[in-house]
Design goal:
Shape of chain A: globular
Strand content of chain A: under 5%
Strand order of the largest sheet of chain A: 1-2
Oligomer: homodimer
Structural class of chain A: mainly alpha
Order of helices and strands of chain A: HHHHHEEHHHHHHHHHHH
Chain lengths: 301, 301
């Protein structure tokens, strides 16, 4: 059977949307008590009906390298997506990036309020780890704790959250191209890296496999961010479902602001080449990961 | 050897303080990248040099029921304390309770800024789960995933965060005594419950043991919150290291505001009785848990 990227993308988005809708209900979220409807609604607002679900796609595609069935990757993909969703909710807050619009809809703090947005983000992050601990994620507890460790490393102070702090600190001083790349490797790269590694761990990847796939993920993650920065300069708000030209308007330092769009496009091509090279050991089973790397370079929204 | 509560309390506080100081460094927090110094500093500010470490104490004491050595409970206690610390940082934000002072020092958003406080909280929460996934927490991965599940259930939408949302929503309508108790059972009770259950799980507690200890934890947790509400009326800011009389000043609905201090004190006595009754099956090994329940009722700060 020939690999179809559009099919893989659509199926993942459908699976994740369904799983999120089932997971984010007062009944499913009940613990020692029941969450307020407002909290459940804000968690749904911040995670449903939006996004390409690229991180769950990477989980699925990395697992596919080792023959894991797509359905068996859904809880893990969901956990990564919950972390992504929480990070957007918190990043959009007035105290952070102060964004009113996300995927063409009001951000969570605009639809609700700041306190609810903070709590909804906290709850989504917590839920991600609770989900990974459950048996539906993987029958082997030893694999599940590794997934928890990977997600915590990718999402925490040494990863995504740390990158966000570097980004905020960078607003007040000149950053070299290298410093910008390092910040992006944490802010957006670390969760993409975690997604790929978590998929690989679902499939029982060896250390050598993990090394190759991590190299893929790091190159693909850099490409993803660079493409995003290029699109901020070249795309329309309608295509993106959010404001564009925002980086320049805010004097935000990006690779594009440092070297220009044309050089950034060349660099993007090199990154995709690096990502594809890292997949050489894997044959056809890595066609999904290959297609996603190419998609990162070619997407127009 | 006779059990000494003051010794247990002091030793736990010392162990947790040391472990936090070692854990919250840029080196120890490094993942795919290194955290900014500002983030590390804010995480330290929000968790070091403060607090009685009652939740790690409960982890230690619940584990002691099954003969687990105190040292072996430190990583688990630390994880619960990290969640407690994050919750205080986020609760103190202007968008939430808007507190400037915590344990006699500026809150994290006052010492840094709101964005840093949001991120420091997010990073502490994430770190808690990463820590639980590590082998130093317990040699058996099956136990570690149960700890992750317990903490997520206690801290998430069906527990602590859900309780905080109920609390905020309650500000705009009349709450019955029962509704206040249910809210507190989530907001402060759920994490206390998780601490006790996690300690029990470290010791390989049976389902029957867990049932008894959960009953203890729920009664002790209610007692803890009720004592806190009583102290807000009766204690001085100097003794508490934070503002008092704040509940009444804000028109906050507490059990005390509903039934008065004297009736609340009687109710507190009943809760302690319930907590102690739940420990009847356990003999001397539960002396620590007994002492903590009594301490909850008798503390003056």
């Amino acid at each position: 059977m020939t690999y179809s990227f559009p099919n893989d993308l659509a199926t993942t988005a459908r699976d994740i949307e369904r799983a999120l809708a089932a997971l984010l209900t007062a009944d499913a979220l009940a613990g020692p008590g029941r969450p307020a409807d407002r909290l459940t609604a804000a968690m749904r607002h911040g995670s449903l009906n939006g996004g390409k679900r690229l991180r769950p796609l990477l989980v699925r595609q990395a697992a596919a390298v080792f023959g894991v069935a797509p359905e068996a990757t859904v809880p893990t993909g969901l956990a990564v997506e919950l972390v992504h969703a929480y990070s957007l909710i918190h990043d959009d807050l007035p105290a952070m990036d102060d964004d009113d619009l996300r995927r063409g809809r009001p951000t969570v703090h605009k639809a609700y309020d700041d306190a609810t947005a903070i709590l909804a983000g906290d709850a989504l992050l917590t839920l991600a780890f609770g989900l990974l601990a459950g048996e539906t994620t993987h029958p082997d507890a030893a694999v599940r704790v590794r997934l928890v460790a990977e997600l915590a490393a990718g999402a925490g102070a040494g990863g995504m959250v740390g990158g966000q702090m570097h980004d905020i600190e960078g607003e007040t001083r000149f950053l070299t191209e290298r410093a910008i790349a390092d910040m992006h490797a944490m802010k957006t790269g670390a969760l993409i890296r975690a997604a790929v590694r978590m998929g690989a761990r679902l499939g029982g990847a060896s250390d050598a496999d993990l090394t190759h796939l991590t190299a893929y993920a790091e190159a693909a993650g850099r490409a993803f961010q660079l493409a995003d920065d290029i699109l901020d300069v070249t795309a329309t708000p309608e295509a993106m479902g959010k404001q564009t030209g925002k980086d320049a308007g805010q004097g935000k330092q990006t690779i594009v602001s440092r070297i220009g769009v044309e050089a950034a496009r060349r660099q993007l091509g090199e990154m995709i080449h690096d990502a594809l090279s890292a997949l050489l050991p894997f044959g056809d089973a890595a066609d999904g990961l290959r297609a996603t790397a190419r998609f990162f370079a070619e997407r127009d929204n």
